[in-house]
């Protein structure tokens, strides 16, 4: 999934989408299954779920029946249930993605200002580049672990820069990557863990 820079947290969103794409456990697809999933995960009773959703108990029982939502209120409840299922499953998805990255690494496709900071006029100087690069497993795992632990976007950007620099330029001194290389703001980002 490609994320434009305007999303506010393009790296976090791209990692979430990549994790969702490789998650193999079955998703609850109906409102009935989502209600059961949320109740089981949050240890709620049916009345507690109705209170959490802000609807009467009879409204919850409507969602337990088959069929799609038929009015605006039901569609709002369906969307909230869908969002809650994704939120509850997120840690398992990210852990599954991190384990997958241990063997495959992570394919990154982006466009940004990228290169050496202090090589004016050289072919490796920082300039806008279209980058498609396989990030090594250890660097991919570090990025996914930081995201799972809810690191801020700036830290994710630093780890993504490190992974791209190590894969693209293969520097001998990896301790001073931040000093010698730069990865500017991303125009878009696409992350793939299925390779």
Outline the structure in words:
This protein has 195 residues and is of the alpha+beta class. It has helices spanning 10-22, 31-42, 46-53, 57-63, 72-104, 137-148, 153-168, 177-180; strands spanning 2-4, 106-116, 127-135, 181-183, 188-192. Strands 1, 2, 3, 4 and 5 form a five-stranded antiparallel beta sheet that branches. The longest helix is centred in the middle third of the chain and has 33 residues, at 72-104. The protein is elongated and about 70 Å long. It starts with a strand and ends with a strand. The relative contact order is 0.18. The mean pLDDT is 85.
Topology readout:
Elements: E1 2-4, H1 10-22, H2 31-42, H3 46-53, H4 57-63, H5 72-104, E2 106-116, E3 127-135, H6 137-148, H7 153-168, H8 177-180, E4 181-183, E5 188-192
Antiparallel strand pairs: 1-5, 2-3, 2-4, 2-5
Helix pairs in contact: 1-5, 2-5, 5-6, 6-7
List SSEs in N-to-C order: EHHHHHEEHHHEE
pLDDT average, as an integer? Answer: 85
Individual helix count? 8
Helix percentage: 40-55%
Largest sheet: 5 strands, antiparallel
The beta-strand count equals 5
Helix/strand class: alpha+beta
C-alpha Rg, in Å?
A: 21 Å
Distance between the termini: 14 Å
Gross geometry = elongated
Strand content: 15-25%
List unreliable stretches of 5+ residues. none
């Amino acid at each position: 999934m490609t994320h434009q820079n305007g999303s506010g947290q393009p790296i976090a969103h791209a990692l979430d989408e990549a994790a969702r794409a490789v998650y193999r456990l079955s998703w609850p697809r109906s409102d009935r299954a989502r209600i059961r999933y949320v109740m089981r995960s949050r240890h709620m009773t049916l009345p507690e779920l109705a209170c959490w959703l802000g609807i009467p108990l009879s409204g919850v029982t409507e969602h337990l029946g088959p069929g799609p939502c038929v009015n605006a209120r039901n569609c709002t409840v369906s969307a909230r249930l869908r969002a809650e299922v994704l939120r509850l499953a997120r840690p398992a998805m990210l852990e599954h993605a991190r384990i997958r990255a241990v063997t495959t690494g992570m394919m990154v496709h982006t466009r940004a200002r990228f290169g050496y900071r202090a090589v004016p006029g050289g072919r490796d100087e920082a300039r806008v580049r279209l980058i498609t690069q396989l990030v090594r497993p250890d660097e991919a795992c570090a990025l996914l672990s930081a995201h799972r632990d809810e690191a801020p976007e700036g830290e994710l950007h630093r780890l993504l820069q490190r992974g791209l620099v190590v894969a693209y330029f293969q520097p001998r001194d990896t301790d001073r990557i931040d000093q010698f290389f730069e990865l500017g703001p991303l125009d878009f980002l696409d992350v793939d863990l299925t390779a």
